[in-house]
Amino acid sequence: MNAPLSDTTTALPQAAWQSTFVNRLQRRSSRVIVIELVPATALPLAGFTAGAHVDLALPDARVRSYSLMNAPEHARCYQLGILLAAEGRGGSHYLHTQLREGDSLQASLPRNAFPLHEPAENSVLIAGGIGITPLLCMARHLAARQRPLHLYYSARSRQDAVFLQDLTPLGNALTCLFDDECGGPPDLLPLLAAHPPATHFYCCGPGPMLDAFGLACRRLGITRAHVERFSASSRLPGSLPPRGYDVVLAHSRTRLHYDGQGSLLDFLLRSGVAIPNGCHQGVCGSCATRVVSGEVDHRDGILSEHERQHSSLMLPCVSGCRGTQLELDI
Ligand code: FES
């Protein structure tokens, strides 16, 4: 995530997988499917909070993260909206072309890197494209609790707004912004300025929209702003230059030398260290790891400046070490 960032990110280590099967698969468009996962055993699925996501374990040891669309009040299933990525690493292509109703899927316990500030006086949700999925979950949750909210749903055209049917219950709390009807992407500055100062703003969508959101928030002095990225930002600091350093695994007191080739996450996985992982782009939070000592060179898109300074988390899929040694709490 880009600044301004959520100040409440909680990237929790993944604990277990749940056996599920695909109860329903809907094709909403040539590029978007919605799947509903239900338990494959007698055990209910783990509950979740609004804004959470789960990882799916796919063939070839691929793991992909997807936001939960259904309200936490209806956690008997997990509903996920999946965009066919144009330049993905094959996960969405597999799900779009191979997955069928009745198929088994392993889903992680839900994690939440985009939590809702529930006591807020007002919540404004701004979604672009597939970024609607976590915001749909939030909107459903807030509506179920009769909390004040407004959802802005932006898409290139009405035809591209394939989640419109899910939003009908919001009534006047929904504003649709279609590029082809509005003459381009929405101008977020007046849109944000129209809401009272105590509002919490949430934005999820394509990188340019999140960058525009960040800029508008900075101009308006908005601090209660939360974003979730589905892919790396054009304004993220970029990849690390290759440089080596020692990595100490605190639990086993093992010292490894990382030569700077590939990501630190890949190096740890190759070294036999089990670390949950998903996007490999620093945006899903799956690989969040606690640092015991050493100066981290943060390159992720989800930790806030506050977290970088005051928490001990790092995302080893994109981040590294500024010094000669990094000690990890694993
Ligand atoms: S694997 Fe997604 S943040 Fe590291």
From TrEMBL:
<dbReference type="InterPro" id="IPR017927">
    <property type="entry name" value="FAD-bd_FR_type"/>
</dbReference>
<dbReference type="InterPro" id="IPR039261">
    <property type="entry name" value="FNR_nucleotide-bd"/>
</dbReference>
<feature type="domain" description="2Fe-2S ferredoxin-type">
    <location>
        <begin position="245"/>
        <end position="330"/>
    </location>
</feature>
<dbReference type="InterPro" id="IPR017938">
    <property type="entry name" value="Riboflavin_synthase-like_b-brl"/>
</dbReference>
<dbReference type="InterPro" id="IPR036010">
    <property type="entry name" value="2Fe-2S_ferredoxin-like_sf"/>
</dbReference>
<dbReference type="Pfam" id="PF00175">
    <property type="entry name" value="NAD_binding_1"/>
</dbReference>
<keyword id="KW-0560">Oxidoreductase</keyword>
<dbReference type="Pfam" id="PF00111">
    <property type="entry name" value="Fer2"/>
</dbReference>
<keyword id="KW-0411">Iron-sulfur</keyword>
<keyword id="KW-0001">2Fe-2S</keyword>
<dbReference type="GO" id="GO:0046872">
    <property type="term" value="F:metal ion binding"/>
</dbReference>
<protein>
    <submittedName>
        <fullName>Oxidoreductase</fullName>
    </submittedName>
</protein>
<feature type="domain" description="FAD-binding FR-type">
    <location>
        <begin position="15"/>
        <end position="117"/>
    </location>
</feature>
<dbReference type="InterPro" id="IPR050415">
    <property type="entry name" value="MRET"/>
</dbReference>
<dbReference type="InterPro" id="IPR006058">
    <property type="entry name" value="2Fe2S_fd_BS"/>
</dbReference>
<dbReference type="GO" id="GO:0051537">
    <property type="term" value="F:2 iron, 2 sulfur cluster binding"/>
</dbReference>
<keyword id="KW-0285">Flavoprotein</keyword>
<dbReference type="InterPro" id="IPR001433">
    <property type="entry name" value="OxRdtase_FAD/NAD-bd"/>
</dbReference>
<dbReference type="InterPro" id="IPR012675">
    <property type="entry name" value="Beta-grasp_dom_sf"/>
</dbReference>
<dbReference type="InterPro" id="IPR001041">
    <property type="entry name" value="2Fe-2S_ferredoxin-type"/>
</dbReference>
<keyword id="KW-0408">Iron</keyword>
<keyword id="KW-0479">Metal-binding</keyword>
<dbReference type="GO" id="GO:0016491">
    <property type="term" value="F:oxidoreductase activity"/>
</dbReference>
